Recover the amino acids of this structure.
């Protein structure tokens, strides 16, 4: 399975309680400048920043929240990764950056 | 030897070295020559080349003057300030920002108001105010040499923030409160700076946090006619005692 990590130059920040991903100027041709994400997504992002893979993300969510359906959780996490990778906010371990 | 000029923004002096001999003239009364050769900001020839492509109909000195907005805003981040694309005016001691892309009616609203209620408001700058969050919780709005096409601005005028209104042209006049979560992306897009480092991103986020949190917020779809200006005025005059979002 492909492992993803956060792209250097993408910063998670908080504005009035809202979680925002901001891309540094060197990345503005590559990915959106600003994207608003919800609280669970920000939690996943922070785990990705620490280098977590999908299994570790699942474990981190399970440790933090009550989860009934592990497979549904996996789908949510994979969708999140797909979305962030689609925005070029993530690098796969096959990419350099 | 190149001359160095200085402009003061929110009490911070920024020193410029210009590529074009005439650029300083665009800064009018905001600028003064200073001794020495040290400067903070200078446009590069590469940046000028990009600027010429973006503003092909303008002279080089004006292109350089425009390019210096973003460089200045980025420089101001180190003091926790930035430039925010909006028309800033004072009404009863508070600064109000009309934020919108160019050509969306910021100046129209100002001119309508001046005509309908003379002497009630005064322009800080028609285009690019400096946002300065202060330790005491207020957010001060200052003028800059970038005052818009009509050159509306007063170098010596500054005021604490009353609120920010996002303008949108439309076929109706409708003003509605803007929730902070709805303001984040549009406000980021109105900040005249694309931060280059994590430190700058965090500094800009802090300014935006304070800007969104310190005043009233509204979204105003409007036709740019006199009734729309009366709606705007009623919102601002009615809210002048307010300090928090609501």
């Amino acid at each position: 399975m492909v492992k993803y990590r956060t792209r250097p130059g993408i910063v998670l920040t908080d504005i009035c309680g809202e979680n925002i991903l901001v891309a540094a100027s060197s990345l503005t041709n590559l990915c959106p400048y600003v994207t608003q994400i919800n609280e669970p997504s920000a939690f996943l992002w922070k785990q990705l920043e620490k280098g977590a893979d999908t299994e570790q993300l699942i474990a981190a969510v399970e440790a933090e929240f009550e989860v009934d359906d592990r497979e549904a959780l996996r789908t949510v996490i994979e969708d999140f990764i797909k979305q962030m990778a689609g925005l070029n906010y993530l690098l796969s371990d096959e990419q350099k950056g | 030897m190149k001359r160095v000029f200085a402009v003061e923004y929110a009490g911070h002096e920024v020193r410029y070295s210009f590529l074009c001999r005439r650029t300083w003239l665009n800064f009018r009364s905001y600028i003064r020559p200073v001794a020495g050769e040290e400067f903070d900001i200078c446009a590069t020839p590469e940046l000028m080349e990009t600027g010429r492509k973006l503003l092909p109909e303008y002279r080089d000195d004006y292109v350089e003057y425009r390019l210096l907005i973003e460089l200045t805003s980025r420089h101001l981040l180190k003091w926790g300030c930035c430039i925010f694309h909006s028309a800033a005016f004072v009404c009863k001691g508070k600064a109000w920002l009309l934020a919108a892309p160019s050509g969306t009616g910021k100046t129209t609203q100002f001119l309508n108001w001046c005509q309908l209620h003379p002497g009630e408001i005064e322009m800080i700058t028609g285009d690019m105010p400096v946002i300065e969050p202060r330790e005491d919780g207020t957010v001060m709005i200052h003028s800059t040499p970038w005052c818009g096409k009509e050159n509306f601005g007063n170098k010596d005028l500054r005021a604490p923030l009353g609120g920010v209104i996002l303008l949108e042209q439309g076929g109706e006049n409708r003003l509605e409160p803007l929730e902070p979560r709805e303001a984040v992306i549009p406000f980021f897009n109105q900040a005249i700076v694309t931060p280059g480092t994590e430190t700058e991103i965090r500094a800009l986020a802090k300014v935006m946090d304070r800007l969104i949190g310190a005043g009233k917020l509204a979204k105003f779809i409007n036709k740019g006619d006199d009734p729309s200006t009366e709606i705007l005025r009623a919102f601002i005059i009615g809210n002048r005692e307010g300090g928090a979002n609501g």
Observations:
- Chain A touches chain B at residues 9, 11, 13-18, 20, 22, 24-26, 28, 33-34, 36 (CB under 8 Å).
- The longest helix of chain A spans residues 70-86.
- Helices of chain A lie at 39-49, 54-64, 70-86.
